[in-house]
Amino acid sequence: xxxxxRQTARQAGATALCALCLAAPALAQSRSAGDGSDTDNERLxxxxxxxxxxxxxxxxxxxPYDPLxxxxxxxxxxxxxxxxxxxxxxxxxxxxxxxxxxIGTRSAINFDASTEIVRPSExxxxxxxxxxxxxxxxxxxxGVTRATANxxxxxTQAMPGTPGLATDIAIAPQTITVGGDVGVTRQFxxxxxxxxxxxxxxxxxxxxxxxxxxxDNSEQNYWALDAGLRxxxxxxxxxxxxxxxxxxxxxxxxxSTALAAYPNxxxxxxxxxxxxxxxxxxxxxxxxxxxxxxxxAASLGEVVTQLYDAHITxxxxxxxxxxxxxxxxxxxxxxxxGGTARVDYTANAEVxxxxxxxxxxRALADWNAARFAGSADTETGYGLGAGADYKVNAxxxxxxxxxxxxxxxxxxxTQDAHRITVGITLSR
Length: 428
Hints:
2 domains; 1 helix; 3-stranded antiparallel beta sheet; Porin; 18-stranded antiparallel beta barrel
């Protein structure tokens, strides 16, 4: 063998030996890390996968990236028993809900939708008890200016036997409301100013009586246009005083048969109040003012109402939340009322207590009274309720509720209803 060949072979062998020595630690490290080349792969070791119970948390369902919208949904199945003045009733309700939320550096978008599908136990047709869509958006134009735009759609229909609904009504009218509003708020030192504008369409379906007579309510359909101005002044870090002014216009599709005229009207309101905020523990708002509703038709005159509004939120710690409110509203009488305007006074209170991570309790109460301008009709009523939610796991919850409603009206007399509801909710 030539000398040059033997030298070349020796050099190649030495190079290969050096390369093998350098690669050996890396190969050993790769095998020890569990790359699948041996039986020491960590996925094959006992008590490693799965790491824990699957339903301990829902985080594993979240997308591994940062989505544009956070998606949440739930489906509730509820059974309810009602014993009322009009009789007994058992309903099965399916309530799906969905929500989309986006929080950006300057913007916030929230969309929510829910529907309530009702099937009576006696085999009646399936009804849509309620359908609600809502869109809320906000955008910070700068550090002291924020613009908002909101939209809503609701479809509601009272079930027979509901307190306040006449006992001779077999199918209550379906109410459809579609609306939207825009607003801008800006802060000028200790002053803040907000301007809003809104438009809403209200449509009422026919009423079917137990005698099979159908009453047309289309003359109650109307457009509502509103504008508002709010000016607030931060007197101290806790207290803010404010004044509100509003103007509105109600335009009806058809003249009223009972009034023999179009009930078109212009509303003007003036209110003043104060708001107090103590950290995140207590917030109180109270205001009072006057409202004027003037009809285009001189024969209908005008309605002057004293307005009162108040709201309290008390959260002493993360386990307790207490709210209470009182409000005055002036609106058209609707298909179940009379006269030229309905003046409503409503009050409500609610207490929620989180016992622990799997049990939550709640109780509520409400009261209402209404008078009708141009009519001797009156309505009063109150309700009480209590309920509990029990979390089986991160995605399943059981609920139970009891409610009592009482109403008295010159048109429908005295009515009472006891309601028991139990259900299960599956959520994302």
